[in-house]
Amino acid sequence: MDKDRVIGSAKVVEGKIKVAVGKAVGDAKLVSEGQTKKVEGKVQNAVGGLKDALKGK
Q1: Which residue spans adopt a coiled-coil conformation according to this UniProt entry (predicted)?
Q2: In the chain, what are the domain boundaries?
Q3: Is 18 left (phi over 0), alpha (psi -120 to 50) or beta?
Q4: What whole-number distance in Å separates Cα of residue 12 and Cα of residue 49?
Q5: Taking the model in full, what pTM does it have?
Q6: How does 18-56 read in b/e, with b if 16+ C-beta sit within 10 Å?
Q7: What is the pLDDT of residues 4-39, one digit of tens each?
Q8: In Å, how far are 17, 28, 35, 36, 45 from 49, measured between CA atoms?
């Protein structure tokens, strides 16, 4: 498994936590940062998946 997949998954989790905390305390900026982090993590995870697919061929 490529390291980008692991890091990407961690960023998604971090983003979900930021969104939840931001909603709980009413901090729109924190919610926005969390959503951005989730997208960033999904993209990095996809890149890692592509790397894994290329290594397998």
Answers
A1: none
A2: 3-56
A3: alpha
A4: 15
A5: 0.88
A6: bbeebeeeeeeebbebbeebbebbeebbeebeeeeeeee
A7: 999 999 999 999 999 999 999 999 999 999 999 999
A8: 24, 32, 21, 20, 6
50 Cβ partners below 8 Å, 6+ apart?
none
Token representation of residue 37: 């982090």
How is residue 16 written in tokens?
Answer: 């979900």
* Average pLDDT estimate for 49-56: 90
